[in-house]
Design brief:
Radius of gyration: 19 Å
Distance between the termini: 49 Å
Oligomer: single chain
Number of domains: 1
Strand content: 15-25%
Structural class: alpha+beta
Number of strands: 9
Largest sheet: 7 strands, antiparallel
Number of helices: 8
CATH topology: oxygen-dependent coproporphyrinogen oxidase
CATH architecture: 3-Layer(aba) Sandwich
CATH superfamily: Coproporphyrinogen III oxidase, aerobic
Length: 305
């Protein structure tokens, strides 16, 4: 049963299925990440500390203003909420795995930017969002999110991208191979299309450089709900399969203070992208989302030269 089952009467069976999947994926990812925390051994840095565990916090959307989204069912009930999972551990310096389901009314200005909202500004959105910043500069940071949005239209979007401090060709190849397999199982044109979209989207334009080594990014999949939902599920499964493998490869590698300083500078680039260009950040803030959850993607420490 979904965590917001009390609202199931006003949501379609498809919306409930999507919401339940995002929550299931969150639980599987969090369990996998906690297992990684258990695997670190001496003499690696931080191995003498307790293994990290996720701390969960549930939040509810209570602001009913039209700018931040009112109710969609006419009941006067505030529009949804979510569950944040945050862990500060010895492998993961900071990792957030959040799910949310929100509904309401877009502001007139923002409605013009969202497909199907100019005709009717009411919306429903559910998804999972994950960002991992690692203790070791040799273990790649990562981002993944998938979502389902309903206005007068209905679509899926999301993706995953790898953000190593020190790119390793084998890691990049394996990450992309996993995502390619997920794409090819549904449409042989998906991978190249969504890879190119990712490369374009995660460009730090004011610096003229990529945020990381890419992955896939997709949006507005609305041709066949069942097929698009199945693809979105496979993107989540591909991430869950490949990323823990990459972490394990570098988990025990020793690193230096020089590595650490380079990591902090690269994190600065991550901050710049998320605060200036990221559409998910904008969407969350424009729809009255939980600010702590929206800004979960920011690293605990960063630096600029």
């Amino acid at each position: 049963m979904s965590e917001t089952a009390e609202k199931s009467g006003i949501w379609s069976e498809r919306q409930q299925r999507a919401e339940a999947w995002f929550q299931e994926l969150r639980d599987e990812i969090c369990a996998a990440f906690e297992r990684l925390e258990d695997e670190l051994t001496p003499p690696q840095q931080h191995a003498d500390k307790p293994a990290g565990r996720f701390d969960y916090k549930t939040w509810n959307r209570t602001d009913e203003s039209t700018d931040k989204g009112g109710d969609t069912d006419g009941t006067g009930t505030p529009g949804g909420g979510g569950r944040m999972g945050l862990m500060h551990g010895r492998v993961f310096e900071k990792v957030g795995v959040n799910t949310s389901t929100v509904y309401g009314t877009f502001s007139p200005e923002f409605a013009k930017q969202i497909p199907g909202a100019a005709e009717n500004p009411q919306f429903w959105a559910s998804g999972i969002s994950l960002v991992a910043h690692m203790q070791s500069p040799l273990v790649p940071a990562v981002h993944m999110n998938t979502r389902h949005i309903v206005t007068t239209k209905s679509w899926f979007g999301g993706g995953a991208d790898l953000n190593p401090m020190y790119p390793v060709e084998a890691d990049t190849d394996d990450f992309h191979t996993a995502l390619r397999r997920a794409c090819d199982a549904h449409d042989p044109a998906y991978y190249e299309k969504f890879k190119a979209w990712c490369d374009d989207y995660f460009m730090i334009k004011h610096r003229g450089e990529a945020r990381g080594v890419g992955g896939i990014f997709y949006d507005y999949l609305e041709d066949d709900w069942e097929a698009d939902f199945a693809f979105t599920q496979d993107v989540g499964r591909a991430f869950l399969e490949i990323y823990p493998q990459l972490v394990r490869r570098h988990l025990q590698e020793p690193w230096t203070e020089e590595h650490r300083q380079h990591q902090l500078f690269r994190r600065g680039r991550y901050v710049e992208f998320n605060l200036i260009y990221d559409r998910g950040t904008t969407f969350g803030l424009k729809t009255g989302g939980n600010v702590e959850a929206i800004l979960m993607s920011l690293p605990p420490l960063a630096a600029w030269p």
